[in-house]
TrEMBL record:
<dbReference type="InterPro" id="IPR005334">
    <property type="entry name" value="Tctex-1-like"/>
</dbReference>
<dbReference type="GO" id="GO:0005737">
    <property type="term" value="C:cytoplasm"/>
</dbReference>
<dbReference type="GO" id="GO:0007018">
    <property type="term" value="P:microtubule-based movement"/>
</dbReference>
<comment type="similarity">
    <text>Belongs to the dynein light chain Tctex-type family.</text>
</comment>
<dbReference type="GO" id="GO:0045505">
    <property type="term" value="F:dynein intermediate chain binding"/>
</dbReference>
<dbReference type="InterPro" id="IPR038586">
    <property type="entry name" value="Tctex-1-like_sf"/>
</dbReference>
<dbReference type="GO" id="GO:0005868">
    <property type="term" value="C:cytoplasmic dynein complex"/>
</dbReference>
<protein>
    <submittedName>
        <fullName>Uncharacterized protein</fullName>
    </submittedName>
</protein>
<dbReference type="Pfam" id="PF03645">
    <property type="entry name" value="Tctex-1"/>
</dbReference>
């Protein structure tokens, strides 16, 4: 294992430490490159977040609603395009949520896009979590051609 570029944050200071990193595998063995470094936070022994740094579903719902409306307002259903659009939207939501200064939360985003054809559909998610610290936000969007469901989970890491 190659142990390079692991960064630890200890009491506000960034410390370089060794870690094995993922590599991009290509057909040319000489072009394998390190994709990114891993950041690991030093244990603060903080079992609960301060009230100001708790995952707030109402803020996340607003972000997701704005992103879905911006990106899907004129979208028509195409299975290939909608699959790629769902992945793109999940990435956008995740990046916006990460800027919210909730460092000790793992963010998981799921976006489902389907054809709006006057049929029923049930979407369910199940998780094992701490009901006092973990939370989620869910938003529905639909136009004449498609519907979209976005769910964002915030799971506290102690």
């Amino acid at each position: 294992m190659s142990d390079k570029n692991r960064r630890r944050i200890k009491h506000g200071k960034l410390i370089k430490q060794n870690v094995s990193l993922p590599v991009e595998i290509t057909s040319n063995p000489d072009s394998n490159q390190i994709i990114n470094s891993i950041i690991e936070y030093e244990n603060t022994y903080q079992l609960t977040p301060p009230d100001t740094k708790r995952f707030n579903p109402s803020i996340i719902q607003k972000i997701m609603d704005d992103l879905l409306t911006e990106n899907l307002v004129d979208q028509t259903y195409n299975s290939m395009e909608c699959g790629a659009k769902a992945i793109e939207l999940a990435g956008l939501i995740k990046s916006r949520v990460r800027h919210m200064d909730w460092n000790r939360y793992r963010i998981v985003v799921q976006v489902t896009i389907g054809q709006h054809s006057d049929q029923g559909m049930a979407v369910a998610s199940r998780c094992v979590w701490d009901e006092n610290l973990d939370n989620y936000a869910c938003v529905n969007y639909q136009n004449k051609s498609i519907f979209a469901i976005a769910v964002c989970f915030g799971l506290y890491l102690d």
